[in-house]
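User: Can you fold this complex?
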Amino acid sequence: MKLSINQLKYLKSLHGRKYRQKYHNFIVEGTKMAAEVLAAGNLEVESIVAVPDWLDANSRLVEKSNAPVSPVAEGELKKISLLSTPNQVLLVVKQPDWHFEKNEVETSLSLYLDDIRDPGNLGTILRIADWFGIGWVFCSPGSVEALSPKVVQASMGAFLRVKCFELDFDELKSHLPGLPVYGMVLDGASIFDEKPNTPAIIAIGNESRGLSAEIQSKLTHRISIPKGIGGGAESLNAAVATGIVCAVAMNT
Amino acid sequence: MKLSINQLKYLKSLHGRKYRQKYHNFIVEGTKMAAEVLAAGNLEVESIVAVPDWLDANSRLVEKSNAPVSPVAEGELKKISLLSTPNQVLLVVKQPDWHFEKNEVETSLSLYLDDIRDPGNLGTILRIADWFGIGWVFCSPGSVEALSPKVVQASMGAFLRVKCFELDFDELKSHLPGLPVYGMVLDGASIFDEKPNTPAIIAIGNESRGLSAEIQSKLTHRISIPKGIGGGAESLNAAVATGIVCAVAMNT
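Assistant: Here's the predicted assembly.
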């Protein structure tokens, strides 16, 4: 129940972006999320590395996946795990190839993320999109990698359902020139007065700098979350702001 | 411009909860937050450890604080910093002694956090409270420490303005038996239909288990953030959920 040196080397290499891009795959860890990936069945699983107990408990899902299985001891799994808590399973999963579908986006509420850098924030934003049934999240080129381990972990499985990939803002606009773009800024109209109506794109800016001047110049609506009386903070966390604007857009 | 061995030892000890509690202080790092603490002037600063450039640029604030100053080289500061990016200043700050003020809480919207464990979440929740002008955040005994370095960092200075401390739920209720308590649960009424009116307490549960059965039995209102059509996520992040309910309570 040991991994070969080559297996170990290969699995460890996938902790780095370079090799995830080279092999076009990514790592999913943790019993719950691994079971969810196998049950969903929409992403190709390249291999399952797990302790025998987990394989027994999930034998039907494992069989259904048709993926090669490496049973390993827990100590062996620890060598390749990025989780701090004891882990039972690690999947290598092929990266999904999402493609822009004009007819879907032009009838939906979608998100455009301008230079989000923190993987926890991107994962949390994908989880928000997943909760509200938002199917498309576009990231500006150079944003944090959408399938890095920390994003995958924070997304709580949202990467199975939310289509997230890099797309230049101008290219997105060129596909859908008439679609309103609501940008989150600090000096816009209240989201409660000027709430984003579907279909539209909501643009969220970088954690410290907000939306770039270039994207700001192309917005159709500038919107803000009103600060409370006596409020002292300079801004809200990017994922929290995204959650608030999505909740208001979908519910009021 | 070196710290003595005893200074180094003392400052490093404050990375641990045990010594922060013993000395009743905590650490604030980073140029912006340090300047904010000195400018606010409401917390006692025990010492300032900073590079000469930072001390020069902030000489008025430093003087006003009357705190002992240790000028150090950047390499020396690195030895005691928990930040990953180059740091210029570290403050040792006395912990504030907030006390429950019935007349304030009984006219306000306040938060009760039941067993929040992730420091990033608590810091983000304090930042949310700060943004919306919510002055009181109570934490159940055993929650993550409100002045741990990661909470302080994520709060973006909110610890200067938001009164946050441990308080047993029953004790809070005993002070204000008539105050409505809105609890965030997965099967409650929509926050848009049954929005929390000031004065009230909004209770938020633990990241994985939600509100404890005991606190749930004492709620006056059970509320939820409505899931979108086709939404797949099982839940929202605790800080995101807090942001959404606060935004709706304060604005609609």
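The longest strand of chain B covers residues 181-190. Chain B has a mean pLDDT of 95.
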